[in-house]
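explain this:

___
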Amino acid sequence: MTGLQQSEQIYLDNNSTTPIADVAIETIEACWNSRLANPASQHQTGQVSSRILNRVRELVLNLLDASATKFPADKLIWTGCGTEANNLILFGRCLDERGRIRPGNLVISGIEHPSVTLAAQQLQRLGVELRIAQADSNGVVSLDDLNQLVDEATLAVSVMLANNETGVIQPLQSVSKLCRDRNVFCHTDAVQAIGKIEVSFEALGVDALTFAPHKFHGPVGIAGLLLKSDASLQPRLMGGFQQEGLRPGTENIALAAGAAAAMHWYFTDRNRHESKLRSMRNEFESLVTKAIPAALVIGKDVSRLPNTSCIAFPGVDRQEMVLAADMAGVACSTGSACASGSSDPSPVLQNMGLSPAVIDSALRFSFGLFNSLDDATESARRISLAHSKLQSRSHD
């Protein structure tokens, strides 16, 4: 087992959050130790802080292939988390300058993260017509559905780039083209994609993109929203002029710098990192399905994130299985961490039309760069043993 002991937990819940990288910690500490000032202040120390924040913003824009130098440049709005960024987009597009609901409809997919789904449902209660595109059994959103749902009255379309539960990558370039052809605003929640696959804001062709650094070994407590230079949005918060008034409040320079450092660290060796993630996931899936023939890898026939494995164990309750895995020393989840306290079936898997036996037994395993191939091998062994014990108990 190459040093792993049974009592040591193997962390396979990186889609929930990732351990922070040393380079991000060092960058954050350096900012704190330098006693940076408010970047909105006009004195020299404030202007130094402002220049640092601008350099960080330009680095992130360049890494994500957004325009940092043309006039007007694409925008990077810092928020407190991905949930805030997604809410800012949906409410910012569906409300007018007086805070009233704009006439029209909102289109999302049925596999979105709760920060999109629940925000959209709240807007529906306030009077926005909500339209939901279905996904197929592999977890790919239907372009035919979107083609039927999106029209000239659509206020915004929001389709995630990669699903947080299944890892399935969505056809965003086709989605954005459909929106452009109808002059409709297009947003993608790319929180799970960045740090796992190549992401180009320019190539995707969307108007807005959400990312969260704690998903790629950056700090918790900060997220980003990329906006095309001509994108219009109503703010959700009032109280200042920072970030063009779209997200007022003093920017957290240290966390922004830490986020950029983690992103740069990942991107400078992206191919090797992605290869490592894919190797671990593939080894894990191979061993689990060999030991448990009934196990079903969801979305295995389509493009997925290299780190994510959603596996159903028909005949075993998912809640019991995740607890058994935890007792065996493997940290995994039953779906989105934002819904982990719920015992309800996954809306994502339900939207895909999967059978109750699959939905009720599905777990998510997500690898990170701090995992190893030994982790994949040992966690597969532990999961197989946990499954065997649960089956034996159910037959007693």
User: Anything to note?
Assistant: Residues 222 and 252 are 8 Å apart (CA to CA). The chain has two domains: 10-20+270-395, 22-267. The mean pLDDT is 93. The radius of gyration is 22 Å.
